[in-house]
Structures are given as structure tokens and as C-alpha cells.
Write a structure and sequence with these properties.
Strand content of chain A: 25-35%
Number of strands of chain A: 13
CATH superfamily of the largest domain in chain A: PurM-like C-terminal domain
Mean pLDDT of chain A: 92
Oligomer: homodimer
Shape of chain A: globular
Largest interface: A-B, 75 and 74 residues
Strand order of the largest sheet of chain A: 8-10-7-11-9-12-13
Low-confidence stretches of chain A: none
Chain lengths: 321, 321
């Protein structure tokens, strides 16, 4: 196969997906030229996924394309940003046209859904590695941060936890599960839904936020460290889906919910005076929110059982090295 | 070795290099928050380098870090942009601390020299692959493009051509060369100088611009295609350095100058009425400029010899796939 980098970009990635009127020059020159939004700050995120490390080597091209953008949209959501533009650095062993078509479809359909335009990229030959850099806008001063959780704030998560980790086990054939539950969990692993609208709703409401990519325990610890606080989380309150309960026994389901990565839900804290605002979200959107605990003065993350007794529990999140 | 992603970023990349007052939140949260510059447009570029593909596997960590940023600075230069921020996606087989220190030094020293702040990143485990996404500013409407070359415009290049390709041969032990010339060419390969100041000077002067990364012939063809023009280039006018002449015979030196990649010089076109402006650049800066040919109406790139006779010559640039 002989296809140049330029034909590649042209054939699969150019002039597709959302078109935005703030893109002066898109794909096809040495760089993109983009028009800033007055009164706003630019939010910049970047995430790499590596074949055989962050996703199974046999995952479909469409699912890889979807994931590469979804993990970045999730970071934008955690900052409270409105998605705008992204660039793609795609390294792949050979220019397989069927694969490229599927990959571009998976990525660009998700981009279009969030009104995001692919404005630049680089394709190179090498082991399958995909880096997306994504850009969004927040009104000046309103970005959500990891720092900011205050003593007494409620600790919340969106959706359910642990589904994606259980779904990966189904995909890898490591789980015995009824077909319906297995299929629901697989979909949660393959097509995580970035909580973009929720992130924007939380501006001015949440005191801190992070997306759950490495597992709730690991990610909540980042919030607590950045905020110089601790938290008590009630194990019985963890939102565990029916399919996860159907596929994994009680203790193992809790393990997935606390330590499993790839859920891409938001974990955030809300001061007592603003918690009632969350009702406006629930009234408007189908994504459930659950208060799982409380921010406390004393540093560290502690888990408590139904009788409010602290439970000793070692949970390690996803280890990058 | 057990070092988490967060320790990695913290130890080697955070709170080093240039600090800019338009960075509201830098490395350490889910994303960076950046303040736009009024009256300006954002230029976004991204480039990936893969170990064993874009650079020899044995290249030093410092040289890899330098190159990863330099190729992006060169793209910003080709757009006429002033560098501002960059993000880094670093995939590496293991977290070797000596290597990381050298890599960070190579990248951050270059960033600091161009007043550029590293504002975000992702480190992942996998085969050595480095993607930098870089951002810069141009006054609204003034970005340099590939399209825009007009019939009769002069075709120019900065510096000398072919040195980097010859330097790579020296590095790989494929060249017999006197020590001094070999060392000069090696340095041109390992530490290419992005023509950032020249790119900004060319705003409002050049009618089109591109950086020479895949070889002059290949890159000039992109300009000609985007501009729907052709060009005649005089082989005798190609700027060939003394070290290149010392290491490669006449015809082979011309081959390097036309087909060799990695020089990261600028190739640009200037309308006749503005060519005198280039004298201001020469008076101010040490980077030489050479007029190598003329833009013509008839599409295609043609080479002419000393007698103005068109020379048939097949040159293929760097093939990405």
C-alpha cells in the first residue's frame, strides 16, 4: 500500500464532522488558525491511548477512534469547558484503509455530536498510539479545578461506577455473565459517555471536580490532595449498576466501583449551600447523581460501612508505569 | 522502578522552563486554562516523532526532547506565529529517570529560549513516541499560508539545504567525512534551529510559506499545489553549505538539498514589490536568505541548470507511509 500522509488526511479526516465558524484555517496547512472567544479562557487537555496498554489490541477501529476523543472530552467536562476544537496525532503500523475509515468514523461522529471540529493532525508510522489534544472554552475565571473542596462539602459522582472495568473483563473473556448484562457492561467500556453537559452545569456549583479515569479512589485522592482535605466515603452509597451486580459478587462489585478505571464519570464536591441546585440538573437530564460521602478536615480518603465504622481497604488505581 | 505518572510530571516537567502570565492554570489539573490575546488568532500545530522512524533509536534523550519541540516550533514559524504554550504526550517503554531528565532538559531549554510554557501533558507506557502540540499567536488575519504564491513571486529559502540529511548519514556511520565537516552536519541534524523570528518577520511580506521538513522539492510542491501555480528553481542557486560540499560530491549534494528532510528551514515566496524588504531582515539577523527561483503560471515544479535548460529530475521527499 502506498498512500502518502497528505492523501490520508485528505481522504479520511478533512472536510468532515462539525464545521465551526471560529475556524479560520483548518486541516491542510502547517497549522490551524483559530479565533478566540471574547471574555473566555481556553481550556487545553491532552490524552494518549496506546494499543495493548490502554485498550485491547483487538478493539475495533471505530471504538479506538471513539475512545481517543472521549477521554479528552471527559477531561474538558471535568474542567467545565465547552468543547471547540481538537487535533489528532495518529501513529499506526500501516495505512490500512478499512481501519482508517472505521477510526475516522468513530472519532468524527463523536466530535460532531459535541460540535467539535478536527482542525489539525499528524499521521506517522509506528506502533498504534493515538494522542488527541482538545480545546474548549470557559467563561473567564469559571474553570472547575481539583483544588477547592472544602470541609463539609458533599462528595458526588455521576452515573454508575465499575461498569467499564467489568466490561473490559467481559471483552477479554475473563467474566462469566448473562448475555444482557455482559452486553450492557461491554458497551459502557467501549463507548463511555463523557459528561460534557454536566461539567458545564457544575460551573459555579461544584467546589472541585475530576473525571474518573483511573478509578474513583485514585482520582478522588487527587482532589483531596489538591484541596488539602480528606473525605469519608460510604461504601453502601456507591452507585453500582444492575448489570454489574448481576455479573460480579458483592465485594468484587465494590472493588470494581472503587478501583476500576475507564468509567469517565465526574466526581465532584459541592458546598452545603449549593447542593439544592443539583435538583435543577436532575430535573433536566437523565444522568443520575449520587452523594457518596463528605469532605473532612483530616487528610486522607477513608471508607465507612453501614454502621459508620471506618473500613481498612487498600485500593490502587490504574498504575501508569 | 515504580514511579507514578503524577510523580513523573511533577519531578521532571512542572515548574520549570518559561513562566508566562497568560497561563491561569498550568500542569497538574485535568487541563490547562489559558488567557487569549485580544486582536489575535490562535495558531495550533502538532507533530509526532517516533523512535526508530523519525530519529535513530540511539539518539540521546536530550536530542529527542529538543527535536520533539523544534519540529513544532518550525511549524509555528511557517505560520508566522509567536510561540506561547505547548503540551506533551510522551509514550515510553519504561520510566528511566536518567533518560527523562535528559529529555526534559532538551525540551524545556528550547521552550524557555522561545518564551514558551509547557502547560499540560500525558505520560503513557509503550513504544517511544513523542507528540507535542504547540500554540502561538498571530495578529488577526496575518497568518502565513501555503496558498497565496503568485506568478512572478520570488522563491526563497533560509539557511542551507541538505545539511540535516547528510548529518543523519554521518550519525548512522554511512558517510566518510572529515571530522570538522561531519561534526557541523551532525549538529545541523541533531539541533535544527526553528526559524521563529524569520517567520514573524515574513508576516505581511511573504505571499506563502512552509517549513522544509520532508525535503525542499516535496514541501515546495505543497505550496505550489495550494497556490495553483508552478515554479522554476535554479539548481546552481541552491544554498549548499561548505561542510556539505566537503562531505558529498556535487550531484549528491544537490540530491540532499532537494530531497533531504529535517532541515527545518523556511521556504517562502515574495511578490516583486516587497522583495526589497528582505534587506531589513538581512541587516538585522544572521540567517541568510537565498532566492532560488520564480513562481510561474504553469503548474508543476521544474529545475533549470546554469543555461536555463529544464532538467528532468525525479525527487521524492520523505514518505510517511
Amino acid at each position: 500500500m502506498s498512500i502518502s500522509e497528505f492523501e490520508l488526511i485528505d481522504r479520511y479526516f478533512r472536510r468532515r464532522g462539525a464545521r465551526r465558524n471560529d475556524v479560520v484555517i483548518g486541516i491542510g496547512d502547517d497549522g490551524a488558525v483559530l479565533r478566540p472567544r471574547p471574555g473566555h479562557e481556553l481550556v487545553l487537555v491532552t490524552d494518549t491511548i496506546v494499543g495493548g496498554v490502554h485498550f485491547p489490541a483487538m478493539m475495533s477501529a471505530g471504538d479506538v477512534g471513539y475512545r481517543a476523543l472521549a477521554v479528552n472530552l471527559s477531561d474538558l467536562a471535568a474542567m467545565g469547558a465547552e468543547p471547540a476544537w481538537c487535533s489528532l496525532a495518529l501513529t499506526l503500523p500501516q495505512a490500512d484503509e478499512t481501519w482508517l475509515q472505521g477510526f475516522a468514523d468513530g472519532l468524527l461522529e463523536l466530535a460532531e455530536r459535541f460540535d467539535m471540529e478536527l482542525v489539525g493532525g499528524d499521521t506517522t508510522r509506528g506502533p498504534l498510539t493515538v494522542t488527541v489534544t482538545a480545546h474548549g472554552w470557559v467563561p473567564a475565571g469559571q474553570a472547575l479545578r481539583r483544588a477547592g473542596a472544602g470541609t463539609g462539602d458533599g462528595v458526588y459522582v455521576s452515573g454508575c461506577l465499575g461498569d467499564a472495568a467489568a466490561g473490559l473483563r467481559v471483552v477479554m473473556g475473563e467474566s462469566t455473565c448473562d448475555a444482557e448484562s455482559g452486553s450492557a457492561l461491554t458497551r459502557r467500556f467501549l463507548r463511555p459517555e463523557p459528561r460534557v453537559a454536566l461539567g458545564q452545569f457544575l460551573r459555579g456549583v461544584a467546589s472541585s471536580a475530576i473525571d474518573v479515569s483511573d478509578g474513583l479512589a485514585a482520582d478522588l485522592r487527587h482532589v483531596l490532595e489538591a484541596s488539602a482535605r480528606g473525605a469519608e466515603v460510604h461504601l453502601a452509597r456507591l452507585p453500582i449498576s444492575a448489570p454489574l451486580r448481576a455479573c460480579e459478587h458483592g465485594e468484587s462489585a465494590i472493588e470494581r466501583a472503587l478501583g476500576g478505571g475507564d468509567d469517565y464519570e465526574l466526581c465532584f464536591t459541592v458546598p452545603p449551600g449549593r447542593e439544592s441546585t443539583l435538583g435543577d440538573w436532575l430535573a433536566e437530564d437523565g444522568v443520575p447523581l449520587t452523594r457518596i460521602g463528605t469532605v473532612v478536615e483530616r487528610p486522607g480518603l477513608r471508607f465507612v460501612d453501614a454502621g459508620d465504622v471506618v473500613v481498612d481497604r487498600h485500593i490502587s488505581g490504574y498504575a501508569h508505569f
